[in-house]
Every structure is written in C-alpha cells, then in structure tokens.
Amino acid sequence: MIEKVTNKTNFEAIEVLRFPLMILVVFVHVIPVNLYSMQPYWRTNSAYVLVSELISRHLGQIAVPCFFLFSGYFFFLKIYTFDVQIYAAQIVKRLRTLLIPYLLLNIIFVLIVLLKNFVFGKLGMAQDELYFSIQRASFYEIFWGGPFLFPLWYLRDLICMMVLSPVFYFFLKYGKGLALSLIIVGYLTTWELNITGLSSTAFLFFGTGAFMGIFKYDLTMLGARYKGCKFLISALFLGMVSYFTATPYYEYLIRFFIISGVISALCIGNMLLKTKKVKFYLSALSSSVFFIYAIHEMYIINWLKGGFAKLPMANNEWGKFIAYFTIPIVCLIVCLCLYRLMRRFLPNLLAILIGGRMIVKSVKINLHGV
C-alpha cells in the first residue's frame, strides 16, 4: 500500500538523487551511439565494452525517465482541482522555467558554434561538423526537431507534457489504475506516436508522476520497502539487457529494466538520506543539475573526448578505461566551476538560463524535475 504524502521531508530522497542522475547523463554522452554486443571471451577490450555499455548504455537510461517522473509528480502534487485558470497559471509559470531557457540555450549554442568557427576560420583552422549542421538545418530542426542542443530534447518533451497536462489530469483522475496501466502497456510494447515531442518515455514517466501527484501518494515510498527484492529484479533485467544487446529483444527488455531501475533509484535515494554529509552535499549540488545538463554538450565533453583521443594512451585498452572514467569527472568539474562563476558574477543571467532553479540561502526542494 502506497502511503499518502505527509510532509516535505519525504521529498529529500528525490532531491539527493538529482546530482547522481546527472552524473549518469554525462556518462551516457561519453560513448558513441552504436550498440555493442557482449564479447564471448575475456580480454581488456571486451571488459571495457562490458563496463561502458553497462553504465552508459543501460544504467544511464534511467536518468531522464526519473526526471520526467519527478516533473509530473511535482506539477500535480499541489493541484486539487483543474480548471482554465489553474491551467493558464501553470502554463505562464512554465514559460519562465521551461520555454525561455529552452529557446535561449539553443540560441546561445548556435552563437557559440558560429563564433568558434569564425575564430578558427580566421586562424586557418578547419570548421567543424556542427557549423555545417547549422548551415543545412532549418529553423524547425534547430529549435524543435533536433533540437540543436540535443540534450534539451527532454525539455522539449516536457513542454509538450505540460501543454497536455489537462489530458493527463482527467484521464488519470477518472481512469485511475486502468488509465495508468494502458500507458504502461503502450510503453512496454514499444508503441510510439512518432510525433516529435511526444515520446512514450515522456508519456509513461511524466504520466506516472502525474498519477502519484494527482492522488497525493508519497512517490518516495516506491523505494522505501523491499529494497533487496527491487534491486534483484533490476539486476536480472540488467543482465538480460546486456546479454541481448544489439538483438531484436533489446528494445523490449531495456524498457522493463528502465521501469525497475527507476524504482531502484528511489530506493537508493532513501538510502542516501541515512548519511548526513552525503545528504547535505548532494542536496547542495542539486541546484547545479539543470545548468550541467544544459551546457555539458556545448563543446565541453566533446573537446575533452577529443583531447584524450590525441594522447598516446588512447590506443591502449587500459587507456580507454582511464579516459572513460576521467572525462565525465573533468566535465562535471568544469561545469561546476562555470556554474559557480556565473552564480557569483552573472546571477541574473544564470537565473534566466536555468528557469529560476537556484538555491540562494538554503537547500530547498526543486519542483521542476531537472
């Protein structure tokens, strides 16, 4: 039985998860998009493939669904009735927290790419693929179909979910468990609308969060009990996903794993609360999550990958291991330094870019998902 929400301290398990989930996102972007199957024999290269695929390809897939879940939950948690006035107020609020950052960050990345390639051109250096992508792309592709700053696809889909929030409210309010079950079945059968912004991942996890928020259930209780059993189920699905990678079964199995993995992540969130120092630092770092999510692909991680590729160790299998774990750490440090600098010298601009997701004097619960 899922308990009803009692107080805000129940949300601390969500808050401490946000930075660890951001770490997973960075790891996802370290490796190429190609899927690699399991190697039938043991050698350094096969170990590297196994580790990188486990972390970046599989474990990393739970991060964005968690953010959708949190967003849907907090969107509906304080709503007890849904009418035109409430809907209008929520949409106006999301213009500041979602749409304006979405547009500005894409524009800034386009300007950065143009500036970088202008300078490189003056220096007689080659222009990069991103520059040529801008030349080929339409306005729609840059700001929606891509988007150009690709990690913001999450924000794009979240904007669509917010626009459709009345549909979620009435469908789940009156359809209850049956309505949620239909969304789950659609996700597990890999059914997609094939409409940009309306992914099944967004529908399921925003919808599940919406369901928990509408009925005022304590979302963190999904990870409060039977942790061992939940971890075991996740591990079994993870094993199957790894074994059947690059096969026709992969897409079905990864979705079962993501659902179990999200629940296991909530279990970990509850466990992290038991150590005060860990809880304090992770809660403090959570204010930087959206900023890191938005800028880490603005050349930062790709330049780091390019820099490591030029080192002698890049041709060594153990060197790949070192680079795989070093690049995300350095990327996070660079992003955190930029965040601290902007927070100190350009706080107003930073506030606009991250939609008001700032902690001024104390750690507060973030109600925006990322």
Overall description:
It is a single chain. This protein has 370 residues and is an all-alpha fold. The protein is built from 16 helices and no strands. Helix content is 69%, strand content 0%. Helix 2 (18-28) packs parallel to helix 14 (289-309), helix 3 packs parallel to helix 15 and helix 5 (84-122) packs antiparallel against helix 8.
Keywords:
0% strand, 370 residues, mainly alpha, 16 helices
Care to give the gist of this entry?
The protein is 69% helix and 0% strand. The protein has 16 helices and no strands.
Secondary-structure map:
Layout lengths: L11 H4 L2 H11 L15 H15 L4 H15 L6 H39 L6 H8 L2 H7 L7 H11 L1 H24 L11 H15 L12 H17 L6 H23 L3 H10 L3 H21 L7 H29 L1 H7 L17
Helix pairs in contact: 2-4, 2-14, 3-15, 4-8, 4-10, 5-8, 9-10, 11-12, 14-15, 15-16
Shape: globular
Q: How many strand elements?
A: 0
Q: Classify the helix fraction into a percent range.
A: 55-70%
Question: What's the mean pLDDT score?
Answer: 89
Q: In terms of per-residue confidence, which ranges show pLDDT below 50 for 5 or more consecutive residues?
A: 359-365
The radius of gyration is 21 Å
